Amino acid sequence: MSAAPGQTVGPFFHLGLPYEKGNELVPPGRAGAIRLHGRVLDGSGVPVPDAMIEIWQASPDGKILQQPGSLRRDGWTFTGFGRAATDADGHYWFSTLAPGPTEPGKPAFFAVAVFARGLLDRLFTRAYLPAPKDLDALLESVPEDRRGTLITEADDTGVVFDIHLQGPHETVFLSFPRHRGIWA
Amino acid sequence: MTTTQADIDREILAGQADGPQENQPRLDYPPYRSSILRHPTKALHPIDPEGVELWAPCFGHSDVDDAEADLTIQHAGEPQGSRIVVAGRVVDGAGRPVPHQLVEIWQANAAGRYAHLRDQHPAPLDPNFTGQGRALTDADGYYRFQTIQPGPYPWRNHLNAWRPAHIHFSLFGTDFTQRLITQMYFPGDPLFALDPIFQSVTDPKAREMLIAKYDHDLTSPEYALGYRWDIVLTGDHRTPLDTEEPS
């Protein structure tokens, strides 16, 4: 069965998708809260002010959560899902907790989906925590000169993850088997 | 030099001839001008999903109120335009329903204007219509919205560019890799052939998957016309027999 094609989110997605505290998986400033933030840039290095980023992550102890409450945050429940639109400078931020590895010996990452006006379909990538000690299948398979595009850098408030849609620093974007019609 | 519809038509035709028909949009699709600097130029990196990617975020009745599926009751008065029902089923690539999952929509009003600051199209805003809705699929993957037939509207891709009428849909599956944002169109729209966003999907059968069908069984007497739109997501990467709870 072939899947319905994607279409761009267009310029007016703010009407339908971002929501209050969508980017606050935990309240900013709470003990243990980190900021995951960065910019979305186009092929000329120009910030993209109409992009939207979603993250989906494990809890700090590596649990995958099936907890409702992402759309109406109660301030206490960690759901692992967040959504943020970029601002006029192409900047986005999340207040969240650092994810733990979901299996021992695996590096921890945020699953990331990227949407934008001008981008005809969503892109998937991963944002790994800084300086991963262990490599997983993805980090091993990406050429070393591009691996850095998947790894966040620490700063004073948390970690930075810039997303380059195109250009010399183009982020590594992913395709999964069932996107390619491969049936495992 | 101003780009005309005829220029875009030629580019669309060239795009259909220069490679295999593809059932997903081409990310590199110059007739949609905004895509030129915003598509990756390197091949997507093939990888098996791991960890959280094998699961989707979970939404429930604490997230979505039933009333959010009716876009015609969000204000004091009745919105302008033709009332419609849009309903259907969300299934995965194996045809299995996606139950209890979030569906979000947004759209222009009957005059083709979005209630959005950046929409400068000089068509009237409707104080009784915002154009945003949410629903959860039921246990069998069905969703249902009541809304207003959106109007087509102009945009600035090229001179005299108009988008076919559409409703934006945002969908989740049972794993994160199935995440989909797309647009639902209405049958028989004369603007289909002219629209570079719709035509970025070069396989005509795949484009048809984005067009709702008029469904008289969904039409309610003296009240609203009904459209049926079933949505097929990509395949789930967890095996069908996997009943394991997340670790």
Describe what you observe in this structure.
The complex is a heterodimer of chains A (184) and B (247). Chain A is mostly beta strands and 184 residues long. Chain A has two helices and ten strands, in the order E-E-E-E-E-E-H-H-E-E-E-E. In chain A, strands 1, 4, 7, 8 and 9 form a five-stranded mixed beta sheet that branches. Chain A is globular, with a radius of gyration of 16 Å. The two termini of chain A are 15 Å apart. The longest helix of chain B has 13 residues, at 5-17. Residues 241-245 of chain B have low confidence and may be disordered. Chain B starts with a helix and ends in a 15-residue tail after the last strand. By secondary structure, chain B is mostly beta strands. The relative contact order of chain B is 0.22. In chain B, the strands form three sheets. In chain B, strands 2, 5, 10, 11 and 12 form a five-stranded mixed beta sheet that branches. A four-stranded antiparallel beta sheet of chain B has the order 4-3-8-9, with no helix packed on it. Chain B has a two-stranded antiparallel sheet with strand order 6-7. In chain B, 9% of the residues lie in helices and 22% in strands. At the A-B interface, strand 5, helix 1 and strand 10 of A face strand 1, strand 3, strand 9, helix 3 and strand 12 of B. Strand 10 of chain A pairs parallel with strand 1 (45-46) of chain B.
Question: In short, what is this structure?
Answer:
The complex is a heterodimer of chains A (184) and B (247). Chain A is mainly β and 184 residues long.
Helix-strand pattern of chain A: EEEEEEHHEEEE
How many DSSP-defined strands of chain A? 10
Q: Biggest protein-protein interface?
A: A-B, 77 and 82 residues
Shape of chain A: globular
Series of secondary-structure elements of chain B, N-terminal to C-terminal: HEEEEEEEEEHHEEE
Largest sheet of chain B: 5 strands, mixed
Query: Whole-number average pLDDT of chain A?
Result: 96
Beta-strand fraction estimate of chain B: 15-25%
Which residues of chain B sit in consecutive blocks of at least 5 with pLDDT less than 50?
A: 241-245
Terminal-residue CA separation of chain A: 15 Å
Strand content of chain A: 25-35%
- The overall average pLDDT of chain B, rounded, is 95
Total helical segments of chain B: 3
Low-confidence stretches of chain A are: none
Family (chain A): Belongs to the intradiol ring-cleavage dioxygenase family.
GO molecular function (chain A): ferric iron binding; protocatechuate 3,4-dioxygenase activity
Protein name (chain A): Protocatechuate 3,4-dioxygenase subunit alpha
Domain Intradiol ring-cleavage dioxygenases (chain A): 33-102
